[in-house]
Amino acid sequence: MPQPKVKLVVTGDDFGYCERRNHGIVDCFKDRAISNVSLLVNAASAEHAAELAKRHHIPIGLHANLSEGAPVCQELRRSTLINKDGFFHGKMGFREVLQSGQMNMAEVEAELRAQVKRFCELTGHLPGHMDGHQHVHVLPEVREVFAQVLSDFGISYTRVPVEPGLHSCPFLPPHLRDFNLQVEKDALQSVEVFHRHGIRWPDVYLGLTTMGQNMSFANLKRALGFAMEARMSIAARCDDLGASDLYRPITVELMVHPGYPSHPLQGGCGEGPDDFSQSSDRLHELNTLRDPVLLSYYKQQGILLCAFNDF
To answer: InterPro entries, alphabetically (predicted)?
Structure first.
């Protein structure tokens, strides 16, 4: 078998969100359209998801959640992490509280550790990788705590959401483009922190520009094209480049959100499913990822789907 040009981890995020999401993700895995999942341990169907991962031998990591639903750590039911209703502050609310200086990092650390332990209870092993729901893990201050928790548990891999081609992506609406650019800025500032703690991540990250209705064969091909270009760029920067280094596969993670749409009031992390989960966007991603044209393209381009433990 020829050496692949790209080792691609296609990670289905939000595993555990609801049973319909879980079944969609598993169907994707069985069709070899995704190769990895990221589990929300505080979600309504986390136990169901963990059982499916065991049954189908799906590589699984932890989708650390500080922004949606209720905390795992019971002692934090009254803390800076939650609002007056007892839930996390939300995607933007978490960022606002953090920026105000009112977030207690000891409470962040306690919740992250509790989620790792809950993951172990559900699956019987440590996460193969750990990232952050809604990219909270690269935010200022949080990234230091996050990296320390990974280091302490011996979790080797995370996600650094810096996507090549993000700045030349005109089809994103302004609000989403602004959010993604801020995610990229935070991620770039996380690199030194993760390096210092011995945490690793793939050479290239993809997924900010291919979510929901923006996922298409053309857009995925465009994103993967940037990854192929990055492979040559990485090779060109090596000082003492040997032949084996020049032709080594580039490692890439593609973040995806496939699934069957959630029913109202079923799923979520304690507050019910959000609009994105109930929309057709999840099904659109599922169908796009399983498209034989895309799967054939992987083979033609020497793209091998794998998991983090295959690096």
So the answer is: Glyco_hydro/deAcase_b/a-brl, YdjC-like
Q: Find out whether 46 and 39 touch, Cβ atoms under 8 Å.
A: yes
- Which of 3.20.20.370, 3.30.460.10, 3.20.20.70, 3.30.420.40 is the CATH number of 12-223+254-292? 3.20.20.370
Helix H or strand E segment including 251: strand 250-256
Taking the model in full, what pTM does it have? Answer: 0.93
CB 167 within 8 A of CB 180: no
- Written as tens digits, the pLDDT of the chain (311 aa) is 578 889 999 999 999 999 999 999 999 999 999 999 999 999 999 999 999 999 999 999 999 999 999 999 999 988 999 999 999 999 999 999 999 999 999 999 999 999 999 999 999 999 999 999 999 999 999 999 999 999 999 999 999 999 999 998 888 899 999 999 999 999 999 999 999 999 999 999 999 999 999 999 999 999 999 888 866 665 555 545 555 555 688 999 999 999 998 888 788 887 877 888 888 999 999 999 999 999 999 999 999 999 999 98
Give yes or no for a contact between 149 and 107, defined as CB atoms under 8 angstroms apart.
no
